[in-house]
Design brief:
Helices cover about 15% and strands about 40% of the residues. The longest helix is centred in the N-terminal third of the chain and has 19 residues. The strands form 5 sheets. It has a 9-stranded mixed β-sheet with strand order 11-13-9-8-23-21-16-19-18, with no helix packed on it. The chain has a 5-stranded antiparallel β-sheet with strand order 2-1-5-4-3, sandwiched between helices. A 5-stranded mixed β-sheet has the order 17-20-15-14-24, with no helix packed on it. With about 425 residues, the chain is mainly beta. It folds into 3 domains: about 130 residues, Beta-Lactamase, CATH 3.30.450.60; about 130 residues, Immunoglobulin-like, CATH 2.60.40; about 110 residues, Sandwich (Immunoglobulin-like), CATH 2.60.40.1170. It contains 8 helices and 24 strands. The N and C termini lie far apart (about 65 Å). A hairpin with a 2-residue loop joins β6 and β7.
């Protein structure tokens, strides 16, 4: 429960101030910038929650603006921080960008939005689509103010009534991002999967959707046996439309979806993975030049293909005169990133590719292994999931009884995917084949 919400410039001067409860003097905001400067850590990162004299300051920075909530209560900090994120999202939807100039140009609408999004310090409506139905930037010139949509006053605040489509369809994407760190020997030091289920919903009326996954906890709690692999998901987060009580009781994901595109849920799997694309590298440093050999291996099934593969290999900042030769794809030197990028439109599972690179090196240096950046890999593999998660069913129920088409797609892509390079070999004669 927030007492007040402020929008400040970078000097801490209030641009917008909205007092909801009257239990904290507005002058308390003057202590925000001194507190922020005092509580910064060694890296210059500020703490999102600070307290002084019984007042708690929660803040979020967007470009040249601070969004700050003040409270005296023992409030849920994550709820208020999440509200500030929603507030920034709504302002961005309205003004395209959230910065000091856009706030000064739209302060009337900002006060309207603050009144609708929070009541007596309690967060209320936060869906931009619903707010845009009755709070418009031209509202001051309308002779008749529009009535608030029913979504504001009913239990389903994220969806309006009366939505109609000629063709009722649902598109569901299971997107998994692989985070991985591999040492020069090819051993995985750390790995996890960050998953998200994203939906595009084009359904008439007020439909009820039920989604079933091959959830290991669900099978264990019901005593049923999974036909295939069951997945144990961690750190699950849902969109507000999901009925959490239903999920906690029988692990059923039941919801009335928002209209259009939204993220239904996210999850994490902390598991040991093998690299989907492994890059083995050899680096040779000679007087006046440095040479690289990179071998890429697609370590997934042959029936799958990785699209838009990019292998980003760091080089010394003063490297020049690049020469490349690769068995597949194209290579480009990007001096502003101190790296060369090996691009492959498609890389089939089970295949290997080889790249050789040669650079001139005008200066002699002592290379510090701790500061040497790793190789980064970008890719996208359609119709493939590393975790084995599967959509068992997607049921659509609406009182009019229409038939709807559900479409499901699986995508695996890179997250923070890095492979450390070996120490350069220094020798008189090159052991690598010439380019």
């Amino acid at each position: 429960m927030a007492s007040s919400v402020f929008l400040l410039d970078l000097k801490g001067k209030p641009l917008i101030a909205r007092d909801y409860r009257g239990d904290i003097p507005l002058a308390a905001i003057d202590r925000f910038m001194p507190l922020l400067q005092d509580r910064e850590d060694e890296q210059g990162t500020s703490l999102p929650v600070m307290s002084e004299n019984g007042v708690t300051y929660l803040h979020l920075r967007q470009k040249d603006v601070y969004l700050v909530a003040l409270t005296r209560k023992n409030a849920n900090a994550m709820t208020l921080l999440q509200f500030l994120h929603h507030l920034a999202k709504v302002f961005t939807e309205y003004f395209n960008t959230l910065e000091e100039e856009s706030i000064r140009d739209n302060f009337v609408i900002i006060y309207e939005l603050l009144d609708e999004m929070m009541d007596y310090g309690v967060p209320q409506i936060s869906e931009p689509k619903i707010l845009q139905e009755y709070i418009t930037q031209e509202s001051h010139i309308l002779e008749i103010m529009p009535r608030p949509p029913l979504a504001v006053t009913n239990a389903v605040s994220w969806r309006s009534e009366g939505i109609q489509y000629r063709k009722n369809e649902v598109f569901l994407d299971v997107v998994e991002s692989i985070n991985m760190l591999v040492n020069p020997s090819g051993n995985v030091l750390s790995s996890d999967i960050q998953g998200a289920i994203k939906m595009k919903v084009y359904l008439s009326g007020m439909p009820e959707l039920r989604l079933g996954l091959n959830d290991k906890v669900m099978f264990e709690s019901t005593g049923r046996t999974a036909k295939g692999k069951a997945v144990e998901m961690e750190d699950i987060r849902f969109h507000q439309c999901v009925r959490l009580s239903k999920f906690e009781s029988d692990r059923t994901i039941s919801f009335i979806p928002p209209d259009g595109e939204f993220e239904l849920m996210t999850y994490r799997l902390n598991t040991q993975l093998k690299p989907l694309i492994l890059c083995e590298s050899v680096v040779e440093s000679h007087r006046g030049r440095i040479e690289y050999m990179v071998k890429a291996k697609a370590q997934f099934k042959q029936r799958s293909t990785a699209n838009n593969v990019e292998i980003i290999v760091p080089v010394p900042s003063d490297a020049d005169s690049p020469r490349f030769k690769s068995t597949i794809g194209s290579v480009k030197y990007v001096p502003e990133k101190s790296a060369f990028i090996w691009k492959m439109k498609q890389f089939q599972g089970g295949k290997e590719a080889l790249l050789r690179a040669h650079f001139g090196l005008p200066s002699i240096r002592d290379d510090d292994p701790e500061r040497r950046p790793p190789i980064s890999v970008k890719f996208e593999i359609p119709y493939f999931t590393t975790s084995g998660i599967q959509v068992r069913y997607l049921k659509i129920v609406e009182k009019s009884g229409y038939q709807a088409l559900p479409w499901v797609r699986y995508i695996t892509k890179n997250g923070d995917y890095q492979l450390r390079m070996p120490d350069p070999v220094t020798s008189g004669a090159s052991r690598l084949p010439p380019i």
